[in-house]
């Protein structure tokens, strides 16, 4: 971009860091490149385009919109003179930006037409350097895009606030219940376009498309008001593969925030009728043309799934304490009462015989947390409070290594996944050694593959599903045993008995018993990630069952600790209780930690 049209097309700008123009003859300064670094010769038909681009760059650099960038660039100096930057005796307290090596690196990147990564401590001048380069080389406006180690290309294109959409819908339902005749409430829209904003790259692409159409950005936005004219221009420019409806939907929200004439333009764009339905693949399953389904019997009629009953065995434990006259030792008698029950589920076929079984969890209200009298309870589990949970589907078992391996080979969305991360190998063992971000990526890939909304459970959903109508420390009753749960049997819960310490995970469903909802392994084996940010107690916790977040950041932008539930093979039984909570850094992994998924479309069907 620093090359511009002069005689024989040889002159380039160099960056000296002093705010002045410095041209060089490229053929004199640069040796002949190796074959792998050669550039194509400029063709005669390219010259008008090069001239046109250079004029636009100069126009942009001098435009009022670029004044802020110009001022930043003008104020920046690597040094007052180039020789000062070369001085080895220069003040060491000066930022590292005052080194001639920086100038060399910048110019090398320019001449080789390759990106340059600039690193340094806060205040060392990284941002100022970018503005100075843009100003001195007349590159135009700086594209500002804050990124982290987990930033993806999709973040630059657009941001989709799925959590805000879900929370708005939950509030909408609550308000509708209280005010069923409120027209404003009834007409509220949850269209996905209201929860998407253009990122810096998305904005740049808008400019690129406008240029393709021979328009500036303002003219392009104006064209969005007239779909027929836009479609006609598409045909003239042979751009039929571009779908401008994405920009019409997303851009209106951006323009509204700008206010003034832009907000008026957004209103006009919204009034324009497009003949084609707006679709945002792969997010089309989130269109909120909704009907609410109460999961009580076979009332679900979505043709994309088949709800079917399944039978399972439930165990309830009772204990009786007896003190013998001639023996002061307290002895516990543990009785296990077995019964058969039936629930509903659907089966997600992944490949061949590999399946994911999703159990129907009905809507209900329960008391989350514990009273002070429950043994080994902590302040993390209080105050006890009522929570109403909407219906959903939950994995019958924790995600297995076979299921993980299948999803890990699906196309990447936000991050890479190790297809075989687990320490304890076995296709039917739970996957472990996965971070919270890994689990979120798994859900994203599974959602795109199946067309359904898979995610991690909220903490309230997890405890509600684990308890399955019980109020005892475990869904089994007052205690657990190692013939029903995989935990550290060197420890006993209260007056119970010790048992086996297996020192590893077991295959999911090995013990053959479930809770009243039909879920297996909710206690022990592996800790399970929940969606929520960690909180030290339940003060001000939501009462509608949704995930409790400290901010509306996208999931992959979240930092800090998330919540774990259920305990593991390594733990004392007291931390395997239904109410027990733990926190762990989102990016950490361990052979104690896995997860199970939930599917939210039981609450909202497209």
What does this structure look like?
This protein is of the alpha+beta class and 606 residues long. It has 3 domains: 7-136, no CATH class; 158-286, no CATH class; 311-602, paralog of FGE (formylglycine-generating enzyme), CATH 3.90.1580.10. It is built from 17 helices and 16 strands. Helix 3 crosses helix 6 (126-136) and helix 13 (245-258) runs antiparallel to helix 14 (260-271). Mean pLDDT is 74; it is low at 1-9, 36-42, 78-98, 273-303, 321-331 and 602-606.
Topology readout:
Layout: E1 11-13, E2 23-25, H1 26-29, H2 47-61, H3 67-75, H4 82-86, H5 100-112, H6 126-136, H7 153-157, E3 158-160, H8 162-178, H9 183-186, E4 196-198, H10 200-212, H11 217-223, H12 227-236, H13 245-258, H14 260-271, E5 308-324, E6 327-351, E7 354-361, E8 364-368, E9 385-389, E10 392-395, H15 401-408, H16 436-450, E11 454-455, H17 459-467, E12 527-533, E13 561-565, E14 581-585, E15 593-594, E16 598-599
Parallel strand pairs: 12-15
Antiparallel strand pairs: 1-2, 3-4, 5-6, 6-7, 7-10, 8-9, 10-16, 11-16, 12-13, 13-14
Helix pairs in contact: 3-6, 13-14
Label this structure with key terms.
single chain; 606 residues; alpha+beta; paralog of FGE (formylglycine-generating enzyme); 3 domains; 6-stranded antiparallel β-sheet; 4-stranded mixed β-sheet; 17 helices; 16 strands; 16% strand; elongated; disordered N terminus; disordered C terminus; SUMF_sf
């Amino acid at each position: 971009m620093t090359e511009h049209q002069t005689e024989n097309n040889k002159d380039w700008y160099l960056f000296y860091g002093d705010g002045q123009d410095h041209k060089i003859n490229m053929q004199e300064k640069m040796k002949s490149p190796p074959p792998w670094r050669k550039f194509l010769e400029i063709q005669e038909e390219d010259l008008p385009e090069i001239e046109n681009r250079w004029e636009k760059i100069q126009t942009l650099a001098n435009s009022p919109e670029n004044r802020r960038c110009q001022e930043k660039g003008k104020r920046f100096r690597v040094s007052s003179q180039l020789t000062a930057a070369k001085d080895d005796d220069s003040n060491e307290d000066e930022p590292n930006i005052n080194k001639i090596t920086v100038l060399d690196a910048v110019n090398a990147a320019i001449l080789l037409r390759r990106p340059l990564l600039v690193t340094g401590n806060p205040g060392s001048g990284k941002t100022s350097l970018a503005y100075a380069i843009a100003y001195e080389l007349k590159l135009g406006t700086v594209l500002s895009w804050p990124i982290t180690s987990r930033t993806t290309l999709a973040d630059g294109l657009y941001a989709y606030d799925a959590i805000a959409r879900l929370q708005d819908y939950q509030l909408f339902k609550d308000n509708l219940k209280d005010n069923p005749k409120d027209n404003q409430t009834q007409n509220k829209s949850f269209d996905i376009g209201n929860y998407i904003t253009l990122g810096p790259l998305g904005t740049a692409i808008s400019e690129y498309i406008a240029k393709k159409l021979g328009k500036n950005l303002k003219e392009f936005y104006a064209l969005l008001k007239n779909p027929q004219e836009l479609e006609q221009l598409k045909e003239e420019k042979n751009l039929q593969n571009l779908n401008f409806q994405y920009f019409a939907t997303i851009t209106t929200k951006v323009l509204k925030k700008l206010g003034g004439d832009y907000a008026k333009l957004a209103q006009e764009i919204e009034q324009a009728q497009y003949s084609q339905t707006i679709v945002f693949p792969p997010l089309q399953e989130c269109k909120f043309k909704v009907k609410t389904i109460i999961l009580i019997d076979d009332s679900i009629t979505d043709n994309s799934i088949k709800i079917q009953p399944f039978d399972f065995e439930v165990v309830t434990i009772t204990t009786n304490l007896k003190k013998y006259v001639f023996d002061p030792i307290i002895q516990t008698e543990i009785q296990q009462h077995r019964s058969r029950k039936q629930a509903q589920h659907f089966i997600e076929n992944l490949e061949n015989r590999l399946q994911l079984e999703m159990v129907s969890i009905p809507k209900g209200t329960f008391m989350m947390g514990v009273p002070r009298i429950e043994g080994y309870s902590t302040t993390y589990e209080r105050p006890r409070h009522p929570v109403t949970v909407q219906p959903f589907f939950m994995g019958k078992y924790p995600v297995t290594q076979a299921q993980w391996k299948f999803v890990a080979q699906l196309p990447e969305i936000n991050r890479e996944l190790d297809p075989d991360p687990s320490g304890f190998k076995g296709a039917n063992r739970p996957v472990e050694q996965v971070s919270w971000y890994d689990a979120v990526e798994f859900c994203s890939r599974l959602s795109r593959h199946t067309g359904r909304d898979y995610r991690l459970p909220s903490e309230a959903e997890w405890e509600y599903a684990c308890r399955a109508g019980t109020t005892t420390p475990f869904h089994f009753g007052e205690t657990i045993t190692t013939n029903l749960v995989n935990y550290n049997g060197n420890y006993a819960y209260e007056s119970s008995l010790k048992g086996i310490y297996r020192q590893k995970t077991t295959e999911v469903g090995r013990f053959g018993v479930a809770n009243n909802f039909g879920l297996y392994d909710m206690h022990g084996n592996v800790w399970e990630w929940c969606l929520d940010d960690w909180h030290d107690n339940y003060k001000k916790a939501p009462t509608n069952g949704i995930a409790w977040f400290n901010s509306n950041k996208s999931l992959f932008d979240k930092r800090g600790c998330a919540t774990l539930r259920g305990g593991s093979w390594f733990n004392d039984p007291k931390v395997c209780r239904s109410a027990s909570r733990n926190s762990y850094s989102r990016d950490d992994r361990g052979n104690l930690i896995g997860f199970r998924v939930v599917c939210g479309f039981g609450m909202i069907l497209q």
